[in-house]
Write a structure and sequence with these properties.
Number of helices: 11
Number of strands: 10
Strand content: 15-25%
Radius of gyration: 18 Å
């Protein structure tokens, strides 16, 4: 079968139309086979768990490049909704929290899924901007926190939720980890408050006041649904912010360092 129209292009792959109601995510030749197989396996695992995600069909090869065939999802992202209907921001934030809480009701016992704590530790250790005492403070805080075996999306924000005719669908699962769900919520909190994703992503669309309201409603709704306190999420903020610094995302360093220096250990 020949690939169809190019639908999108990212840092790792291109998305093409494929068959009836399908797309193929065709990875660049430089992308490792192991990473592609990992994405296929974890996304299929999440799909089989019954969560609202695109159906995962098969691994294929086209012109020497590996691809994953997914169900084609038609709709608008929550971010798109926020851009076009900003007066719906409260409803959008509540839906974001509801979906995240639903994901966090699931556990992962598969040892092949990376530990979130291990990933955070690795990122903190490679954060060159962190001075010795700050790095050790972040690592010591991380050591005291629980491992957990919850399903953690790893990159959960409004641009990764698509509103379709049959309901919301959560996309972009390669960063799946097993760990404490409150750590995953802290990562989303950080993205909503201080992140600087690529052009066209969540922070570029949210003015400061709007994004802070979205964050407040998201947190209130998430904590209520999880019957949790704000402290259970915020205790992760220091290591999560320090790990984010280790990703070397342009334009974020100054804000992250301020958060790290002020965060309770």
């Amino acid at each position: 079968m020949e690939k169809g129209k190019l639908l999108g292009r990212g840092r790792q792959a291109e998305i093409y139309a494929w068959g009836e109601g399908e797309v193929v995510k065709l990875f660049y030749a430089s992308f490792s086979a192991g990473s592609i197989e990992h994405e296929y396996r974890v996304t299929r695992l999440v799909w089989k768990a019954g969560l609202p995600v695109p159906a995962v069909k098969e691994l294929i090869e086209i012109d020497g490049r590996t691809g994953i065939v997914y169900e084609r999802i038609e709709g608008t992202s929550l971010l798109g909704q926020l851009r076009s209907h900003p007066w719906k921001l409260t409803r959008i934030a509540r839906l974001l929290a509801e979906l995240h809480a639903e994901i966090h009701r699931h556990a992962l016992d598969d040892p092949g899924i990376p530990s979130l704590k291990d990933v955070l530790q690795n990122r903190i250790e490679r954060a060159k901007q962190l001075e010795g005492p700050l790095r050790e403070r972040a690592l010591e805080t991380l050591r005291r926190l629980p491992d957990g075996n919850g399903l953690c999306h790893g990159d959960f924000h409004p641009d990764n939720i698509i509103l379709t005719a049959s309901g919301p669908i959560v996309i972009d699962w390669p960063a799946v980890k097993r760990g404490d769900p409150f750590a995953d919520a802290a990562m989303t909190s950080l993205l909503l408050r201080a992140g600087s994703p690529p052009e066209g992503s969540v922070q570029k669309a949210l003015a400061n006041t709007v994004r802070l309201i979205v964050h407040q409603v998201y947190m209130q709704t998430y904590l209520r649904l999880r019957n949790a306190s704000a402290g259970e999420v915020m205790k992760w903020m220091l290591p999560v912010a320090a790990a984010r610094l280790g990703e070397n995302i342009p334009g974020e360093s100054a804000a992250l360092l301020r958060m790290i220096s002020r965060a309770p250990a």
